Amino acid sequence: MVNEGAAVLNPWADPGKPTAERVAALLAELTLEEKLAQLVGVWVGISEGEEVAPAQHEFAEPLPPWDELTKPGLGQLTRVFGTGPVDPLVGAKVLAETQRKLVANTRFGIPAMAHEECLAGFTAWQATVFPVPLSWGASFDPESVERMAREVGLVMRDVGVHQGLAPVLDVTRDPRWGRTEETIGEDPYLVGLIGSAYTRGLESSGIVATLKHFAGYSASAGGRNHAPVHMGPREFADVVLPPFEMALRLGGARSVMHSYAEVDGVPPAADPALLTDLLRGRWGFEGVVVADYFGVSFLETAHGVAGSPGEAAALALTAGVDVELPSVRCYGEPLAELVRSGVVDEAHVDVAVTRVLTQKCELGLLDEGWEPESPAVKRGEPVDLDPPALRDLARTMAERSVVLLDNEAGVLPLGASGAGASRIAVVGPCADDVLALMGCYAFPNHVGVQHPDVELGVEMPTLLEAVRAEFPHATVTTALGCEVSGDDRSGIAEAVEVARDADVVLAVLGDRAGLFGRGTSGEGCDAEDLSLPGVQGELLDALLEAGKPVVLVLLAGRPYALGGYRPAGVVQAFFPGEEGSGAVAGVLSGRVNPSGKLPVQVPRGSGGQPTTYLHPKLGAVGGVSSVDPTPLYPFGHGLSYTSFELTGFESAEELPSDGEVEVSCLVRNTGGRRGAEVVQLYLHDPVASVTRPVRQLVGFARVELDAGEERRVAFRLHADRTSFTGRDGRRVVETGEVSLLVGCSSTDIRWERTVRVTGEDRYVGHDRVLVTPVTASTP
Fold it and tell me: Coil, strand or helix: which one is 581?
């Protein structure tokens, strides 16, 4: 790209020059208005339909004509594909033409970055719908998650997208929070390792991964969306922050999104200690920090720490927020006035613009000869956003994430039980509802429900249809029973009659994902307690009283309290996506051997304050309280149709405070069919300077074995993995005794050994060892 009439190539457009030199040359040419234009996005179509972002319509002010709006330039284009049902090729052409007009209409012809959501696949019409992140956690399979992310990223790149707003690295703290489905689990190591894999896959495709929500968002009081966070600095440092550290160091993320939270009274969007001192200073992050949608405005309207859009802009910019999304309200003229008056130093603007332009330069957007047409537009052929390769990955992820919680009665698998598969009743509100398979950021739930005349866009059978296909010789009957939510009990009697005529009953219950109260799970769809929504609990009780074996199948976005029910079997699937019904049906028949493990524990009772398995000793059951918080199914739990034996444990008895120890065991498939076990390594520090969790996951390995096959699983645990935040706020490796535990869940422990950490106490920082490498080899 060259200035009109210029005879020589502008230095900033020369790909042969160093990036820093190019960016500095361009920055020197920009006016204040042109600089600020690089720090904002535009969301065309924001005022149409129901809200898909908080307070969307409150800030949906009419936009000026496009040429006037973009004359100074533009930083980002918001959700060209994800705002409405757009044919992929049409969307790609619109994006290309928009970029072409932008380049032609501005002095320096700087293209915009296009960003989209990709929380469970590309959030676009006709795109593959993958399982939600909570299912990624249940798979305990970082390799498959990385492959999934790379394929999703390649599809996005193909149509001209540059940035993906994923992954979510919030650690589950209270499953009543509606966005629990978007989290990977309640353990920071699991979240960090899986999240880093997704980040790495997305970045490897050329898409800028955006880590969110930084930080503390999932710890909101009472599980309410956007509620204040009451959390001490040690818990924040040891539970909330590690997944972000891991995804930056191990995943190579180039963008971070601040959270909506306010932690101890300070919103992250206005917190320089978090966004500048920690993120950039101690962690060395050099990428771009973007605002969560309207997050800068919320400093004024929701948090009350700013009195005007300009004050909100000043707080956010100086704290370290580079780009206001999804549209301009604060970083435009309100911020410009403060800069012109000297209230805000223009140097802060220059720093943010330098980061934005550096990223655009790295993406090739500043290069001479850059063309707006994406590969899809250049081909000119219909675009398949749901190709066979992605469907195969969706199937793999779904099958590996289904968790068999209970099979005490031995009724499963139905295909192997003889008596169970001739007459099957499939009842419940989620049985014949395709939307029950998807989370709130899947396009059909996120946007498609606002367009009832538009077809779903992807092939996705309901569970009822999948059961009929899985059991072609069985008589399959069905009844709704009740809706997902509400108090209409009129259909329960019919469901009971259908159940009485069957050999086995599949009670398909759970959630319907939505946004801002339009569902039972999803953003803004928080729960008062962990009872099954609506009257689904009453339906389940009635089915159990009918006297036939009942298998409870949960299609949900959070764990629900199940202690009051005794079904013959329980199968949990966390919104398993477009291939999810086949995966669940395969587990029911035995075609798929379940291998998923719980990334969140399942509570026994629905009342009281929910907790996670990462509790200290005082958080466990004891004589000091009449309330027993022991879960019904613990973190890491999941059954199989085969059996596994762990033997041959080996470990040294000393661990140098600056060294490592190998912990190994033999895992053998002692059953009659191929299956996968997740071998889990836990740590407990019984005496420390601050209280420590009774169990903490420090390593895991998903091991697939044929019947009779055996592998030696070896964990290499560095002493840094025992570190925690001490009383002085520094992360320390303390000497003394720790317990290492190996098992198949956080409570199914097969071996324990006391190991002494020797030497001297050590303080460690961001460069510490973050991962426990693991190998599985033939003995």
Answer: helix
**Does the pLDDT at position 47 exceed 50?**
no
DSSP string, 212-280: EEETTGGGBGGG-TT--B---HHHIIIIISHHHHHHHHTT---EEEE-S--BTTB-GGG-HIIIIIIII
Q: How many CB atoms lie within 10 A of CB 477?
A: 17
- On average, the pLDDT of the chain sits at 94
In sign, the C-alpha dihedral spanning 193, 194, 195, 201 is positive
346-362 and 333-340 helices, crossing angle to 10°: 130
Asked which of 84-98, 269-283, 609-623, 676-690 is least confident by mean pLDDT, the reply is 609-623
Angle between helices 388-401 and 580-589 (to 10 degrees): 50
The answer to whether 525 touches 519, Cβ cutoff 8 Å, is yes
- Type of residue found at 506: L
Beta bridge partners of 667: 646, 711
Strand ranges, E, within 6-154: 41-42, 76-78, 113-116
**HEC-encoded secondary structure of 74-116:** CCEEECCCCCCCCCHHHHHHHHHHHHHHHHHHCCCCCCCEEEE
CA distance 306 to 284: 29
β-bridge partners, 6: none
- Given the structure tokens 């139905």, which residue do they identify? 414
Global confidence as pTM: 0.96
Helix (H, G, I), strand (E, B) or coil at 356: helix
pLDDT tier at 48, thresholds 50, 70, 90: low
164 within 8 A of 118, measured Cβ to Cβ: yes
Q: Nearest CA to 291 among 109, 72, 54, 58? A: 54
pLDDT digits (tens, 9 = 90+) for 295-354: 999 999 999 999 999 999 999 999 999 999 999 999 999 999 999 999 999 999 999 999
Residue whose structure tokens are 């209970």:
406
What is the C-alpha to C-alpha distance for residues 102 and 74, in angstroms, rounded to an integer? 8
Query: Are the CB atoms for 156 and 95 separated by under 8 Å?
Result: no
Q: How far apart are CA 247 and CA 244, in angstroms?
A: 5
Cα–Cα distance between 49 and 85 in angstroms, integer? 12
What digits encode the pLDDT tens for the residues 341-398? Answer: 999 999 999 999 999 999 999 999 999 999 999 999 999 999 999 999 999 999 999 9
Q: Which amino acid is at 501?
A: D
Alpha-carbon span 596 to 572, nearest angstrom:
9
Count the neighbouring beta carbons within 10 Å of the beta carbon of residue 183.
Answer: 30
Min mean pLDDT across 78-92, 561-575, 616-630, 733-747 is at 616-630
CB atoms within 10 A of CB 5: 5
- The pLDDT tens digits for 427-480 are 999 999 999 999 999 999 999 999 999 999 999 999 999 999 999 999 999 999
Contact 399, 583 (CB under 8 A): yes
Q: pLDDT digit string (tens) for 484-501?
A: 999 999 999 999 999 999
β-sheet bridge partners, residue 676? 704
First-to-last C-alpha distance (Å) of the chain: 60
Using alpha carbons only, what angle is made at residue 348 by residues 346 and 350, rounded to the nearest 5 degrees? 70
Q: How far apart are CA 670 and CA 705, in angstroms?
A: 10
Write down the pLDDT at residue 608.
Answer: 61
| Percentage of the residues of the chain whose pLDDT score is greater than 90 | 91
Nearest residue to 424 (alpha-carbon basis) of 359, 473, 461: 473
* Cα distance between residue 504 and residue 14, in whole Å: 69
Identify the CA nearest to 777 among candidates 682, 691, 687, 662. 662
* Residue 99 near residue 60 (C-beta atoms within 8 A): no
Pairing mode, strands 774-777 and 710-718? antiparallel
